[in-house]
């Protein structure tokens, strides 16, 4: 099930905001009945019409993308900066990123047109492990990183416990490389958690999402997920 305005937007009829205007104006029908209430849920079996014309609901597609640094995790940007969908010019479906990676963060990002799938992976009540590798300023050790394993509060935001691994340290440059595994998706989470333990992030990459990795891909490249991978991701997103 998916919200009516999202179905209209994904079909390429209008933006989501414009789709909401079409609904409230009485120009949308579901199974022959005019719908003017926002938030109505429809399935692929429901017939949706806009101005008496049935819309085509796209077949779901799922992509794994290696997002480079300096790219916005969005479908458009009012400042004219490069966005992730710029790399999918040959994809006809109206896809969008599942969650986000910061502008200066690289790594694994999933894009899809399946709203239910995206919600399943990003909703707070579900847990999908995400693995990040961060280059930080300072020498990482167990004493500094231990608070992350208990969860911590930083700048009025509570973060769930994380797992860490110290990959390397450089005493001369006073830097370290740390791997962090989390299951939440709060804004700037990895950066904030490491800053909270006095290890500010200099460079960040997401290397794993569930069982998915970036193997075989270079920055800016993508591939379609297999049906098995999609099923595995849904299986890994478990309710608390």
TrEMBL record:
Annotated SMART domains: S4
Family affiliation: Belongs to the pseudouridine synthase RsuA family.
GO biological process entries: enzyme-directed rRNA pseudouridine synthesis
Superkingdom to which the source organism belongs: Bacteria
EC number annotated for this UniProt entry: 5.4.99.-
InterPro entries documented for this protein: PsdUridine_s_RsuA/RluB/E/F_cat, PsdUridine_synth_cat_dom_sf, PsdUridine_synth_RsuA/RluA, PsdUridine_synth_RsuA/RluB/E/F, PsdUridine_synth_RsuA/RluB_CS, RsuA_PseudoU_synthase, S4_RNA-bd, S4_RNA-bd_sf
Gene Ontology cellular-component annotations: cytosol
Record keywords: Isomerase, RNA-binding
Isomerase is among the record's keywords: yes
One Pfam family here: PseudoU_synth_2
Residue ranges of every copy of the RNA-binding S4 domain listed in the record: 2-65
Protein's UniProt name: Pseudouridine synthase
UniProt GO molecular function: RNA binding; rRNA pseudouridine synthase activity
First-level EC class: isomerase
Cross-referenced SUPFAM superfamilies: Alpha-L RNA-binding motif, Pseudouridine synthase
